[in-house]
Specification:
Elements: H1 14-30, H2 37-47, H3 54-63, H4 69-86, E1 101-107, E2 110-120, E3 123-130, H5 138-141, H6 156-162, H7 166-183
Antiparallel strand pairs: 1-2, 2-3
Amino acid sequence: MNTSLLFFPSGRSVERCRQDAKVLVKKSKLSNFPIPLSAALDKVALDNGIKMPWSNALKQIKVTDVKKPQIAQMHLLGHALNLLIKKNLIDMNSTEDADSSYLECELLGKSSIINWNYINFGEIRLSVWWNFDKTKHPQHLEGGYKNRIILDNLPDHERKNMLPPKKAYTQMETLLKNTKLKNL
C-alpha cells in the first residue's frame, strides 16, 4: 500500500508519523522502560487523531478521503472567487482593469478578508485571510496601519488605552493651524 499520500486528521503524513514512532522507540531505549515499535505506532496514531491501533488507523485513513492542504487552499480560493462574483464585486468577462479592493466577510463560517487586484487582461490576483482576527494582528496592537487606529471588536476599556491622550490631539490641531496660517 502506498502511504505517501495518506494523512492523519492532524494533517501529518503517515510516513512522518512512522518516523515519530521510531524516535519514540529510540528515546525509550535510553530510559529503563523500552517500548516496542507497535506500541509506539499505536501511541502516534492516537496523538494524531485516530483512537485505534496503527493497523486499523491505516484502514480508516484509506477509507476516508483526506485532502492535502494545497487542495483545501484551492477550494478556499474557489469559494472566495465565487463569493466575489455573486456580490458583483468583480467581473470575469471584463476587458478593463478595475481597481484593487478587499472585502471583509464570513467565508465558510469563519471571518475572512479577501484581497484582489487585476493584474492584466483576464488575470486577477486573489488572496484570502481565512479565520482572521484583527485583534491578533501586529499592526492592530501598534495603533493601526499608518497610524490609523483599528478599533473594531475592542471592549471599551481597551479602546481607551489605544487612543492617544486628548492633549496630543490639541497639540496636533494647533500645529496644523499654525502651519496653514504661515503657508497662506
